[in-house]
Design brief:
InterPro entries: ATPase_P-typ_cyto_dom_N, ATPase_P-typ_P_site, ATPase_P-typ_TM_dom_sf, ATPase_P-typ_transduc_dom_A_sf, ATPase_P-type_domA, HAD-like_sf, HAD_sf, HMA_dom. It is found in: Endomembrane system. Keywords: ATP-binding, Membrane, Metal-binding, Nucleotide-binding, Translocase, Transmembrane, Transmembrane helix. By secondary structure, this protein is an alpha+beta fold. Among the domains are: about 70 residues, Alpha-Beta Plaits (2-Layer Sandwich), CATH 3.30.70; about 90 residues, Calcium-transporting ATPase, cytoplasmic transduction domain A (Distorted Sandwich), CATH 2.70.150; about 140 residues, HAD superfamily/HAD-like (Rossmann fold, 3-Layer(aba) Sandwich), CATH 3.40.50.1000; about 120 residues, Calcium-transporting ATPase, cytoplasmic domain N, CATH 3.40.1110.10. The strands form six sheets. A seven-stranded mixed β-sheet has the order 16-28-27-26-17-24-25, sandwiched between helices. Strands 8-7-9-15-10-13 form a six-stranded antiparallel β-sheet, with no helix packed on it. A six-stranded antiparallel β-sheet has the order 18-23-22-21-20-19. Strand 22 and strand 23 form a beta hairpin. Helix 3 packs antiparallel against helix 5.
Length: about 800
């Protein structure tokens, strides 16, 4: 069997081909995408710009894969350390960690390792790993609680030490108190006994993640800001401990505790935003079927899903989720496929029809034969999402990039400064003080907070505007998006079925009879029919039906003495009279991209209801704004789209008939129809290769891999949970207009991140020479450092 040239899925036999296109395809959607975008090579795209999975070249096909949430990854160096630690075990083929999402993917040999033992792989230096809990937020609440406690302890320790300084040490240093005051026994007992204890607790307990981050960054050869933070804090603390032991009074415990307190607060703010990305991703497993009712010669009995073999038959009742892909061997039902396709209308299935795992029969009872692989489409989509979320898909923050050069420079400068002053003044104290001053004044609290505080403030402002950003780095990269890809159902449309037209000689009577029959039915078209009756004020006058019977494609009941049949035109056979005007109404409904619900009684069709998925209000204006929005690179100017600044494309599983209105919009560059759920991520990669950075807007579970694969995934809160969890941002209020507001917030964040970093660098350019010259002691260095941080905070939070 061959695989699809676009998405690598298995193709049918024979595969879908076209004489004008090289390759074999699994569906017409992939063929149309490749025809438009196949002249570009996704592999040629810069790896930093795409969501690429880990290198699986050495991973056997039969390897098991587990996904762990990791608590304690403090920086990008932790990411590399956790990866190396996990991979350095027998039975582990590969490990791929992501600091951004705090996830670890492990490919392993289940004969050598048990899944329950995998968290032990990274229990070094205080890291904690666990398989995400199913259906509970307990683990996330515990982790968040630990962060809150650490932040409170850090700030509390800083306040205790600063209070002692404010009442005792600062006045003495400024000459307000006599020199002998700090040497009195009572003062030393009240000040110099508790202060070292509190400072030691703050540095080594509260500041442990900082010290660990410094250690692992040096161990991995990627020095980061934690090295400077830890170096300055340790130097100030160590020197002060020696001074106290020698009976001196010139101590710098305020510097060490202030460093820990400020940085811990910044880490807490960043972590609070970051963990929204995958805080409840493990709960998505709750939608998976764990137990299956198998039918065999002994009858029906429940077994674990893993026990089902290809060809086994299993029973699915109304409302239960179909556990595996397969073929219907008995029963008729209307199957709700909205979880996977996003389409509101159910699909009627009968013996011989294929069904996919993750869909739900809304009526009837089915017996399904498991497919040749005994797998589920839902599980495959969920697996793709885990892969994309657990891999490192974003470039390192600008602060960490600069730190790779800045940190070694400052460390070397501090060492040279201390050595120079020792040789010049012959004083160990002067050498230590100037060296600490260099480290402290350059201690990048403001630099380290420049990005996360600006992002956190932007996220908060977006939340006030009805936009929830669940992956903080996305709001930084959004202004550079070059192409916007839109799903149709639930994105350009509301995803809800509504009656848009009633073609009948007596429309009110036809709608009243149809609503009376459909009132007890359980599918979206029935709901739309009843809602239409309610909207027209005739729901209170609905007659009471009797002898109600529901069919896979409709329903019937006796209403006012007439046996009324409502449903798909195929239900009305040759024994029914179909007037020409209603035949034309059926064709018109299909041509308009809707569905025809036929109503008849007495052997004659009496009317046709056109049921459609309603377009969102203002979708035309929104698409126009996406196409002409500022930002992005100039790559779109050569894309060949219809005269807009940024290409906008529609990617959907629908057929062409329901896309006419969108295809005709002048701002839409391309419409790709019939794209399978698994292929949407491949479409995103092709778009990226041709245009550049991709923003994907969708809301269905079938959109989840594409949302996660895109440089920016945007979902609507009205969509499925899987789509929202895969997205980088969720529009809670405002529809498509909210997407454009998200672009505005992202531009603001980008500008403030840049201004914060410029300030932090400029501050260091001015203060470092002063510290080297001995014109700033550690005390004033700490004051300058705190002032710099306050400026960053104010700049990030201003309206």
């Amino acid at each position: 069997m061959t695989t699809c040239t676009l998405c690598d899925l298995d193709t049918p036999d024979p595969p879908i081909t076209d004489p004008d296109v090289d390759g074999a395809f699994c569906c017409r959607g992939c063929l149309s995408v490749y025809r438009a975008l196949g002249d570009v090579d996704p592999d040629a795209v810069d790896g930093e710009d795409i969501a690429a999975p880990a290198d699986d070249a050495d991973v056997p096909e039969d390897a098991d894969t587990a996904f762990l949430s990791v608590d304690g990854m403090h920086c990008t160096a932790c990411e590399a350390f956790v990866e190396a630690t996990a991979a350095d075990h027998d039975g582990v083929y590969a490990a791929d960690a992501s600091y951004a999402t705090e996830m670890l993917k492990v490919d392993y040999d289940d004969s050598a390792l048990d899944e329950a033992d995998l968290p032990d792989l990274v229990k070094r230096m205080g890291y904690r790993a666990a398989v995400p809990d199913v259906g509970t937020d307990a683990s996330e609440e515990e982790r968040f609680g630990r962060d809150e406690i650490r932040t409170v302890l850090g700030l509390g320790s800083m306040m205790v030490v600063m209070t002692l300084y404010a009442f005792f040490l600062y006045p003495s240093y400024l000459g307000i108190y006599p020199d002998s005051f700090l040497r009195e026994s009572a003062t030393r007992l009240m000040v110099f006994l508790p202060m070292p204890i509190v400072s030691t607790f703050a540095l080594f307990v509260v500041g442990f993640p900082i010290l660990r981050g410094a250690y692992v960054s040096l161990s991995s050869g990627r020095p980061n800001m934690d090295v400077l933070i830890a170096g300055g804090a340790l130097a100030a603390w160590g020197y002060s401990m020696l001074v106290v032991a020698a009976g001196g009074t010139e101590v710098y415990f305020d510097v060490s505790t202030a460093i820990v307190g400020v940085v811990t607060l910044g880490d807490f703010l960043e972590t609070r935003v970051k963990r929204r990305a995958v805080g409840r991703l493990g709960d998505l497993d709750f939608g998976r079927v764990r137990e299956v009712t198998v039918r065999d010669r002994a009858g029906t009995h429940a077994v674990d899903l893993e026990s089902v073999e290809p060809g086994d038959e299993f029973v699915v009742k109304r409302g239960d989720r179909i556990p595996l892909d397969g073929e219907v061997v008995d029963g008729d039902a209307a199957v709700d496929e909205s979880l996977l396709t996003g389409e509101a209308a159910p699909r009627a299935v009968s013996p011989g029809d294929d069904v996919v795992g993750g869909t739900v029969p809304t009526d009837g009872r089915l017996v399904v034969r498991a497919g040749p692989d005994a797998t589920s489409t839902y599980d495959r989509l969920l697996g793709q999402l885990w892969n994309l979320q657990s891999s490192n898909t974003r470039a390192q923050r600008l602060a960490d990039t600069v730190a790779a050069l800045f940190v070694p420079f400052v460390l070397g400068l501090a060492a040279l400064t201390a050595a120079g002053w020792f040789l010049y003044a012959g004083s160990v104290e002067q050498a230590v003080v100037t060296g600490v001053s260099v480290l402290v004044v350059s201690c990048p609290c403001s630099f380290g907070l420049a990005t996360p505080l600006a992002v956190a403030a932007g996220v908060d402002r977006a939340a006030e505007d009805g936009i929830v950003v669940t992956h903080a780095p996305a709001i930084e990269s959004l202004p550079d998006v070059d192409v916007v890809a839109l799903d149709k159902t639930g994105t350009l449309t509301t995803g809800e079925m509504t009656v848009t037209d009633v073609a009948a000689a007596d429309p009110e009577r036809v709608l009243r009879y149809a609503a009376a029959v459909e009132r007890d039915a359980s599918h979206p078209i029935a709901d739309a029919t009843v809602d239409a009756a309610e909207a027209r004020g005739i729901d209170d006058a609905l007659p009471e039906p009797s002898e109600f019977t529901e069919h896979p494609r409709g329903a019937e009941a006796v209403v006012d003495g007439h046996r009324v049949l409502v449903g798909h035109p195929a239900l009305f056979g040759d024994d029914w009279t179909l007037p020409a005007e209603y035949s034309e109404a059926i064709d018109a409904a299909v041509d308009a991209g809707g569905l025809a619900s036929v109503v008849g009684w007495g052997g004659e069709v009496r009317g046709v209801l056109t049921v459609s998925d309603t377009p969102r209000d203002g979708w035309q204006d929104a698409v126009e704004r996406f196409a002409t929005a500022s930002g992005g690179s100039d790559s779109s100017t050569d894309s060949g789209h219809r005269g807009s600044d940024r290409p906008v494309v529609v990617v959907t599983g629908d057929d062409q008939t329901s896309l006419a209105a969108f295809d005709d919009h002048p701002a839409i560059a391309d419409v790709f129809t019939g794209v399978l759920p698994e292929a949407k991520a491949a479409v995103v990669e092709r778009l990226r290769a041709k245009h550049g950075a991709v923003a994907f807007v969708g809301d269905g579970t079938n959109d989840a891999p594409a949302l996660a694969a895109a440089d920016l995934g945007i979902a609507f809160a009205s969509g499925t949970e899987l789509a929202s969890e895969a997205a980088d941002a969720t529009i809670v209020d405002g529809g498509l207009a909210g997407v454009e507001r998200l672009f505005d917030h992202a531009e603001t964040v980008k500008e403030r991140v840049r201004s914060n970093i410029v300030w932090a660098l400029g501050y260091n350019v001015i203060t470092l020479p002063l510290a080297v010259a001995g014109l700033i002691n550690p005390l004033w260095a700490a004051v300058a450092m705190a002032g710099s941080s306050i400026i960053v905070v104010l700049n990030s939070s201003r309206d």
